[in-house]
Amino acid sequence: MSRYLPVALDLRGRLVIVVGGGRVAQRKVGYLLDALARVRVIAPVLSPEMQGWLAEGLIEHYARPYVHGDVNGAWLAFAATGDSEVDRAVA
Asked: Per the domain annotation, does 32 fall within a domain?
């Protein structure tokens, strides 16, 4: 029996926030861009791939650590910092 629930979401044009700028965050952002979501990344530093997406205007970037309340107004948010304390705060 699977412990996972597959979910399909229509994210077209919806604001989705990803907190984190590394490899895991990059993978999530790639999927979100494929789903035509409006993506905002909150992280002091972005991976090279995400820097490219930013240069192309595909994502928004807040170049700083997460601040309580940053996910307010988002339709969906992902925590991908690798810092359990920050990830819990995002959740």
From this structure: yes
Quickly state the pLDDT bin for 30 (edges 50, 70, 90): very high
Stated as kind and residue range, the H or E segment containing 79 is strand 76-79
How far apart CA 11 and CA 86 sit, in angstroms, is 25
Q: Other CB atoms closer than 10 Å to residue 6's CB: what's the count?
A: 5
Place of tokens 């409006």: 38
pLDDT band at 4 (very low <50, low <70, confident <90, very high): confident
28 Cβ contact list (under 8 Å, min separation 6) = 18, 78, 80
The burial class, CB within 10 Å (0-12 / 13-18 / 19+), for 21 is buried
- The CATH number assigned to the domain holding 37 equals 3.40.50.720
Residue 79 has pLDDT above 90, yes or no: yes
What average pLDDT does range 12-36 have in this prediction? 97
